[in-house]
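Lab notebook, bench 4. The sequencing result for the construct came back, and we need a structural model before the next group meeting so we can plan mutations. Quick request posted to the team channel:

Model the 3D structure of this chain.
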Amino acid sequence: MSDMTLDQALVAQAERPDEDGPQAEELVKLVIFTLGADAFAFYGASVGEILARADVFFLPGCPPSLEGVINVRGDIESVLRPHRLLGLADDGAGPGAPILLGRGAGMKSGIRVDEVLDVADVPRAAIEPPAATLPPAVLQAATGALRFGERLVIVLDLDKLFAACVEELG
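Done. Here's the predicted structure in token form:
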């Protein structure tokens, strides 16, 4: 046996395939939420924090997809209502609805959702391409779909959603 440090042995063990069982599936973290009756998800790497409650301050003259701004530990962040950007009915989730702090496409913003269902690790292989029958605005932002329990969840690309917001701001 060669002289090997414990760290080297642990690395070698981790790199060796498990001969007794299947290779571990690659997992991805998803933040799963609802907008109206539909379930959606963002990749966890795009969501830095979930705010259970925050006071949103309205800004006059903003488009309907921009609810206002919030103060997050001294930083002022915008708050988007993604319903309109996705072509969905907006039932006007109140101030108690959670806000996801997202980062993508060179910007950072809060995203008002109706309810956070779960933060879950799911097998990457469970995420399939989105159905072409989705509404056009949802299809444009979708990167995949999966079954989560009894629900169909559409995985959204936060970069694409932010790009749609910037386009709406003109």
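Helices lie at 6-15, 82-85, 136-141, 158-169.
Will bring this to the meeting.
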